[in-house]
Amino acid sequence: MNTLRETFLNELADVYDAEKQLTRALPKMAKASEDDSLRSGFENHLKETENHVKRLDQVFQALGEKAKSKKCKAMQGLIEEGAELIEEEAGDAALICAAQKVEHYEIAAYGSLRSWASLLDEPEAAKLLAATLNEEKATDQKLNEIAETAINLEEGEEEHAHSRK
Ligand code: FE
Ligand code: FE
Known about the structure:
- With 165 residues, the protein is mainly α.
- The protein has one domain (4-163): Ferritin (Up-down Bundle).
- Helices cover 82% and strands 0% of the residues.
- It has helices spanning 4-32, 36-62, 73-87, 92-119, 123-147, 153-164.
- It binds fe (iii) ion (FE) (2 copies).
């Protein structure tokens, strides 16, 4: 069995890779967005995500460890699904759903990481991880708000109109 510190370092390496994958995926999500507030939301979160990578560098430093990356297959899958939706021109509602799946994954990862940093008596790491956790939660909340502003409604009405003919 791994020690908690080993588990902590493994999960950090996983999320480090996940964030780097996201810096490549978010520009494509922004480009595919119809709604201006959704597009600027993705652009803002790209900047935050670049900072999440830097913060993880600082976490590794605070722990006195070399930064390590481990392929995050879960994020790869989530991003692949997002890419399919872009390909299919599935629309903003589908993009928001894909993005929220990503944020919830990150919230789960950072929630555990922050708790473990506290348990392992690493307050600097805990503080850095909590800062990112809060940004992921705020992004999720912002996506909720955009989702509630009737995205894809026009297309939906069009289909409705057709089906009534
Ligand atoms: Fe992030
Ligand atoms: Fe995020």
